[in-house]
Specification:
The protein has helices at residues 11-37, 42-60, 65-86, 98-111, 128-142, 148-159, 256-263, 271-283, 290-294, 327-337, 341-352, 373-377, 384-388, 400-405, 424-437, 444-452, 455-471; strands at 162-181, 187-207, 211-221, 225-231, 234-253, 314-317, 473-476, 499-501, 504-507, 512-515, 518-521, 527-529, 534-540, 546-548, 559-567, 570-582, 589-590, 595-599, 601-604, 609-616, 625-626. Strands 8, 11, 12, 13, 15, 16, 17, 18, 20 and 21 form a 10-stranded antiparallel beta sheet that branches. Helices cover 34% and strands 25% of the residues. Helix 4 (98-111) runs parallel beside helix 6. The chain has 636 residues and is of the alpha+beta class. Residues 1-77, 89-93 and 300-305 have low confidence and may be disordered.
Length: 636
């Protein structure tokens, strides 16, 4: 919004008067009818008529103008929030007429902000909710009279990301050997080598509304892929490899583009306008940190969760993409050195395919996680170079004390008194030790680079780590006390701890407010469990781990999850808020008692706890909210 202290005729007040004259009583009646259905774009415009009466009423009380303005702002903002939610959520709540048509047009405009034929662009698509949020002020304050669809297109086109590409050349090299037996059984072979060039449009950078992304493109040659084909007496063996490019990504949360676009023509938004767009977008559950960026705060890019904080009271069940027999080694490395198990699994996968291809590499690396002998026993060990050239390197069976004296990284993982690089338990524990020594906890990228000195390798490890983490399930060990005991067929309490703030009215020192959930006290990192079977419907992250009473990150919830649960046949949608970590993704099915998150202190908060809300059928603002105590037990 504008600076309302400048003049009674500035900003919203002037718009209100202008609109009141234009809209009249007819639209004032329409807003009441349509607002009850929470479904129409016309609400925002019609609300301006109702505000005219609202102004007169406040003025008759003799209140200072600033209070009148605040009342106007509160009323208009609530209307804006309602409209933003309706046009960015489920279209089923909309009528089948113009409102539904506008909803679909907004979705199409959002899709058109990227080239859907290029998969690398899709993650940067402008969210429909952001288009609606930015449209609110533009349509009601800046360009009254512009058609809805034209306004949508103006906003979407202005906010769409800018992509920078470079055309690079590569080639596919093919070696073909064809052998054919003649009538007397003699095999006659011919060979042919070909190089087929191609061009590759590789992305160099992206300017998006909330981030900048730069890519470092590295020329690489793949290994030879071999195929064989038999056709009667003719055998054709083919080898092929490609000279191409791989890239590594660096992402920074940066609102320079957002700020520039909305400050410029045709919007000309002031700082308060842009903060209003931010607030409206947050009201839909969208993640935005514009205010923090404006204040110079360090912004957090949501990454992999360090599950090392879970401790030994949690059972981890891997997905089908990780052999279960190695989990005890990964978890042991995580426990001792604080390197998440899924990174250890990823390195094991990339290096030797989970020990299915354990050989001495061309560089001399050995074992399931491919250590250089001198790195294992220590570079100042006199015989390490000899060991490196001794096939297959099995002479390295040193005690940990010898290795430590020579500053090596080999470790005894199975307690047999020896550190053997060909033993899975020893090799995986040593990988964890090496990564920890290279400061994995503070600089993941540098630690992975140190392990192999390859950007491609690092990217592969991170990719597999993400896959393994997301495919796994986390449950508290039986009788561990990590989560409350289940209460039979009903729902369970999501976290151990006392109720620090109940459902209903409260005052935390900044005025009375209605608390639509319960707060369960607990330190950062306390396990949060699913109250019953369900499906994850929404996830929001990126908020600083420690929030404050003034933070509006994640619309005040900080990092949160929404999960749609089935409790004895009744559907509820629950909100788990102020989290420090997520363990599930949108669309994941969860089981009762499954650990889905860790509690924290993110968002608008006075101390660490879990905020828990529950809504019958689905969350629709607070229209369907029910007291949590009617669904879950409130005591442990």
């Amino acid at each position: 919004m504008q600076n309302y202290s400048e003049s009674e005729e500035s900003g919203v007040t002037k718009v209100v008067k202008d609109q009141a004259k234009k809209q009249g009583k007819k639209l004032a009646k329409k807003v009441a009818k349509k607002a009850a259905k929470a479904a129409v774009k016309a609400v925002a415009q019609a609300a301006m008529s109702a505000v005219s009466t609202f102004i007169t009423f406040l003025a008759s009380l003799g209140l200072p103008f600033i209070l009148i303005t605040l009342g106007i702002l509160a009323f208009i903002f609530l209307v804006y929030v309602s409209v933003t939610l309706m046009f960015s959520s489920d279209s089923n709540v909309l009528d089948t007429g113009p409102e539904k048509e506008l909803y679909e047009y907004i979705q199409t405009a959002s899709d058109a902000t990227v080239d859907s034929s290029k998969p690398e662009q899709i993650p940067y698509k402008v969210p429909p909710a952001l288009i609606v949020a930015a449209l609110q002020i533009y349509d009601s304050e800046k360009h009254i009279g512009v058609s809805d669809k034209k306004a949508v297109k103006i906003v979407a086109d202005a906010l769409k990301p800018v992509f920078h590409y470079t055309t690079r050349k590569g080639y596919v090299e093919t070696k073909t050997k064809t052998c054919k037996k003649n009538k007397i059984g003699t095999e006659i072979c011919t060979s042919k080598n070909e190089k087929t060039p191609f061009t590759l449009n590789s992305m160099d950078s992206v300017e998006s509304w909330d981030r900048t992304v730069t890519f470092t493109n590295e020329e690489t040659t793949t290994g030879w892929a071999k195929t064989s084909d038999q056709d009667g007496d003719t055998t054709t063996d083919t080898q092929s490899r490609a000279s191409t490019y791989t890239n590594s990504e660096k992402t920074e949360m940066d609102y320079t583009y957002y700020n520039k676009v909305l400050s410029g023509s045709p919007f000309n938004y002031g700082t308060k306008d842009k903060k209003t767009v931010e607030a409206l977008y947050q009201a839909t559950g969208g993640q935005i940190q514009y205010t923090e960026w404006l204040n110079g705060d360090k912004l957090v890019v949501t990454g992999l969760v360090d599950l090392g904080m879970l401790g030994s009271d949690v059972d981890v069940t891997p997905g089908s993409n990780v052999p279960a027999q190695f989990m005890k080694y990964y978890l042991a490395g995580q426990k001792k050195y604080g390197v998440p198990w899924y990174f250890l699994a990823a390195i094991h996968r990339v290096e030797t395919g989970f020990s299915t291809n354990v050989n001495v590499s061309s560089a001399g690396a050995i074992g399931p996680t491919q250590f250089m002998p001198c790195t294992w026993i220590g570079w100042n060990y006199g015989g390490c170079k000899y060991l490196a050239t001794t096939a297959p390197g099995r002479k390295i069976l040193a005690t940990v004390s010898i290795i430590n004296s020579h500053r090596g990284y080999g470790t005894d993982g199975d307690g047999d008194g020896k550190a053997d690089p060909w033993n899975e338990a020893d090799a995986i524990m040593s990988t964890a030790r090496y990564l920890a020594a290279n400061h994995f906890s503070t600089n993941q990228n540098d630690a992975l680079w140190a392990y192999n000195k390859s950007i491609t390798y690092r990217n592969d490890v991170v990719s597999y780590a993400n896959q393994f983490k997301n495919a796994a399930k986390y449950n508290a060990s039986a009788g561990s006390g990590a989560i409350p005991p289940s209460n039979g067929k009903g729902a369970m309490k999501p976290m151990v701890g006392g109720i620090t703030s109940g459902y209903g009215w409260r005052n935390l020192g900044y005025g009375p407010e209605f608390h639509y959930g319960v707060d369960i006290g607990g330190s950062i990192g306390t396990k949060v469990a699913a109250i019953s079977p369900g499906v994850v419907t929404r996830k929001s992250g990126g908020c600083p781990t420690v929030g404050n009473i003034h933070s509006n990150c994640g619309q005040g919830w900080g990092n949160y999850l929404w999960v749609k649960h089935n409790v004895n046949g009744q559907i509820y949608e629950a909100v788990y808020a102020h989290l420090s970590a997520h363990m599930v993704q949108v669309g994941d099915k969860v089981e009762k008692g499954q650990i889905i998150a860790l509690s924290g202190c993110s968002g608008r908060i006075t101390g660490p706890h879990l905020h828990f809300e529950i809504h019958k059928n689905y969350r629709n603002g607070y229209a369907n909210v029910v007291p949590p105590g009617t669904v879950i037990p409130l005591s442990d």
